[in-house]
Give the backbone structure.
Amino acid sequence: MSAGLERRGISDRALALADRVEVFVRDTVIPYEKDARQGPHGVDDALVKELRALARAAGLMTPHIPEGGAHLTQRETAAVLIRSGLSPLGPVALNTAAPDEGNMFLLGKVASDDLKARFLAPLMTGEARSAFFMTEPDGGAGSDPSMMQTTCVPDGNHWVINGRKTYITGVVGAKVGIVMAKAAEGACMFLVDLPHPAIRVVRILDTIDGSMPGGHAEIAIEDLRLPADQMLGAAGEGFRYAQVRLAPARLSHCMRWLGACVRAQEIAVDYTNRRHAFGKPLIEHEGVGFMLAQNRIDLKQAELMTYWCADVLDTGAYGTTESSMTKVAVSEALMRIADNCVQVMGGQGVTADTIVEKVFREIRAFRIYDGPTEVHKWSLANKIARDWKKAQPES
């Protein structure tokens, strides 16, 4: 892994931690990649428990939030999470995976001390998983969260929530839920213990990816009654809190999948140096070598964008524009890298003999999750237009 860029503005302690994470993933996690306790809907909870026990024994559980609860800077988090992503199982083992990583960040920022003790603490120890209930079926909230149809209505010192959600990652087996709903005052966020009888799994969706425990589900929420003190903040602040979560979460995705593509490149380089065709190693054929050269360029550009955006978020800004730009640039670059790795490996690239084909599938989903490229470009174009109008002299 490249160390030069990381060393700027990162403590020796955080760099040493990142190095320990890399050793753990390479030596301990990667041997589990062919474990049968993985399927189309994610990693089985028994495997999650086993891997997390190993991380805990190594002193690496939730490494980006060291003991005491002080979250690393985003720049330091990048150094750690990139390493955790060297295996698709790494984030699961180390408790740096979505949606838990983003949910922990949000709760650490906005939850009361009581809510942190009840809901955040078991997430940080890796003893619980979580789910974030925002996206809805057709006609509801998705890329446009203002279309939210799930409602919450006050009833004494409680709120009653009704609606449907979809693409809810990790809800099967989760113990903590963050539910977004719309009140007269605007969007609201609530914390809920899972499973809950008022939250019903309608179906588990069959998706192209399969790295996240619990898969992705369609959910029905029917008369979910929650005490008012389980609301995050005040009524109407839900969208503001969503930005607190979503901007860093987009960047964390970039970090983890950058690590996965670093590993895919390693595998492809090894394969093309060992495999011969037409009298020489594959890598000596320009058509192959040039793709791997482009991969190296894209990896470096993705790394630069990731650390740049981390620096913006470390200023305390939500960094919505910067995280959108980074999500677009990095996800598209990683897609090219994964595709090139599959291509240069030929038939071997589309088998499960290595993680390359899995990384390809996961990156394809990443281009959509947390906002597809086109939505982020649309948002950026609107900002460009607004900035231009503000810059015009008054007539």
User: Anything to note?
Assistant: The chain has three domains: 12-97, 130-231, 239-389. The chain has a mean pLDDT of 95. The domain at 239-389 is CATH 1.20.140.10 (Butyryl-CoA Dehydrogenase, subunit A; domain 3).
